[in-house]
Design brief:
With about 500 residues, this protein is of the alpha+beta class. The protein contains 22 helices and twelve strands. The protein binds protoporphyrin IX containing FE (HEM). It is found in: Endoplasmic reticulum membrane.
Length: about 500
């Protein structure tokens, strides 16, 4: 091992042990160079005459508000909204972030062109090493839009009908290990289950059948690319996690290439996502290459992994906290599906409207993506302000979903709020867990099918409650805000249903 690699390992171990706050501190010490300061000072001279958004003052050079934001980002942004209004700028790690808070301000991001507010500039350094070249943020946006369209073709109702059966079966199989009663880590279990169900539904039976411990480790190593360290530290550093991510990328793709080759050679066509991609062509008639398909398969799996597993886990805790709501959801299933609860089907799943609203409300209070980000490439006008190029422009679903100008009883988990007239209905971007505009999520319907099937099945199997009434706090140190210490108590409802 070279000295260079050893120092990388030391740095990475330090980063892994640190909280976000100290991570931010460590990173800033590492990156703070005279040259960098010069660049920042140069930028500040070029402010022109336009009226810039109000800036939250900071006396801490370079670090700016990183510590306060890292400790509690939502409280920080809510206070900023109260004090400065819907458009506000502040500095963290030498970068200026401008948040567009509330529906009206957020419209700037969602109606913008990618040339003006650019996604690749902020996301590619995280995604390209994981998904690979030639897909997503590594290609010009019009090409990515074509790729999204191909993926959307594969996410259709005929496929969802098969997915319900698959997900129900995988859920039964997975939760057999939980036994009759106990206390377990719900988030960990749902993360494992979701990778199994997504692999089978989105990659197909061949790839799912290869998902053993070794492949699961490869996914975990790939996923290790989505960390604060990968976002904050330079990509050329010899960090062990970067090396593991890059090796896993090569290994996973080798597996996918073999499966794609077999599919291309098969006499009979399957009817699933992989087949959709094998048969897809760009507008100019060019088919997807094996490498593009493999990159898109990785993207499909990982785009839904943390988002869906975190959402499912939070939903479980909201249901566990409210036993009466749990009972109502169980009764809804009996009314819609029949007293003897036969295997789920897609049409019935759609009719489970209370469960739907529970998911919708979970996504309001705990949207997994707390910030969408773009780089301003051109001056952007919002209200009386002009955001200059170089600002990282952000919209936070979490903040929009709980603004008190918009939502009544804003912090209450109340799935029935959607039955009544709610003030947010008139505001286009008040509820945006899946984003909006050209970068909008294509996985919403699949996520609903997946999470609703898992929870319908789990509610048939178990009765859930919080452990000693403890509802998990939000863990702000991870990129997606996961539940802290996510242990749940469960009791099997009856042995009959578990075998079905
Ligand atoms: C609860 C589950 C999910 C949530 C809350 C969610 C949320 C989001 C959000 C907020 C965006 C917009 C990002 C931005 O504008 O910067 C997005 C984009 C996207 N999501 Fe999801 N997602 C979920 C599941 C999925 C799944 C299951 C898939 C794939 C099957 C998926 C694929 C994508 C893709 C391809 C994009 C487009 C990115 C772009 O155009 O820049 N998502 N998602």
């Amino acid at each position: 091992m070279t000295l260079f690699e050893m120092s990388g390992q030391v740095l990475e171990r330090a980063v892994e042990k640190l909280s976000l706050t100290s991570l931010v501190l460590a990173t800033s010490v590492f990156t703070l160079t005279v040259g960098y300061l010069g660049k920042v000072m140069f930028k500040h001279q070029h402010t022109g005459h336009a009226k810039h958004p109000p800036r939250i003052p900071s006396s801490v050079p370079f670090l700016g508000h990183a510590v306060a934001f890292g400790r509690s980002p939502i409280a920080f942004l809510e206070q900023a909204y109260e004090k400065y209004g819907p458009v506000v700028s502040f500095t963290m790690l030498g970068k200026t972030f401008t948040y567009l808070l509330g529906s009206d301000a957020a419209a700037l991001m969602f109606n913008s062109k990618n040339e003006d507010l650019n996604a690749e500039d902020v996301y590619a350094r995280l995604t390209t090493p994981v998904f690979g070249k030639g897909v997503a943020y590594d290609v010009p946006n019009p090409l990515f839009l074509e790729q999204k369209k191909m993926l959307k073709t594969g996410l259709n109702i005929a496929h969802f009908k098969k997915h319900v059966e698959i997900i129900e079966e995988e859920t039964h199989e997975y939760f057999k290990r939980w036994g009759r009663s106990g206390e377990r880590n719900l988030f960990e279990a749902l993360s494992e289950l979701i990778i199994l169900t997504a692999s089978r539904c989105l990659h197909g039976p061949e790839i799912r059948s290869m998902l053993d411990e070794r492949v699961a480790q490869l996914y975990a190593d790939l996923d290790g690319g989505f960390t604060h360290a990968a976002w904050l530290l330079p990509g050329w550093l010899p960090l062990p996690s970067f090396r593991r991510r890059d090796q896993a990328h090569v290994e996973i793709k080798k597996i996918f290439y073999k499966v794609i080759k077999k599919r291309r050679e098969a006499q009979e066509k399957d009817d699933d996502m992989l087949q959709t991609l094998v048969d897809a062509t760009y507008k100019d008639g060019r088919p997807l290459s094996d490498d593009e398909i493999a990159g898109m398969l990785i993207g499909l799996l990982l785009a839904g992994q943390h988002t869906s597993s975190t959402t499912s886990a939070w939903m479980g805790f909201f249901l566990a906290r409210d036993r009466a709501l749990q009972r109502r959801c169980c009764n809804e299933q009996k009314t819609i599906c029949g007293e003897d609860l036969p295997p789920l089907d897609y049409d019935q799943l759609k009719d489970l409207s209370l469960l739907d609203r529970c998911l919708k409300e979970t996504l309001r209070l705990r949207p997994p993506i707390m910030t969408m980000m773009r780089m301003a490439k051109t001056p952007q006008t919002v209200g009386e302000y002009t955001i200059p190029p170089g600002h990282q422009v952000c919209v936070s679903p979490t903040v929009n979903h709980r603004l008190h100008d918009t939502w009544s009883d804003r912090l209450e988990f109340n799935p029935d709020r959607y039955l009544n007239d709610n003030p947010a209905a008139g505001e286009k971007f008040a509820y945006i867990p899946f984003g909006a505009g050209r970068h909008r999520c294509i996985g919403e319907n699949f996520a609903y099918v997946q999470i609703k099937t898992i929870w319908s099945t789990l509610l048939r199997l178990f009765d859930f409650e919080l452990v000693d009434g403890r509802f998990p706090a939000v863990n702000y140190t991870t990129m997606i805000h996961t539940p802290d210490n996510p242990i749940i108590r469960y009791t099997l409802r009856n042995t009959q249903t578990q075998q079905h």
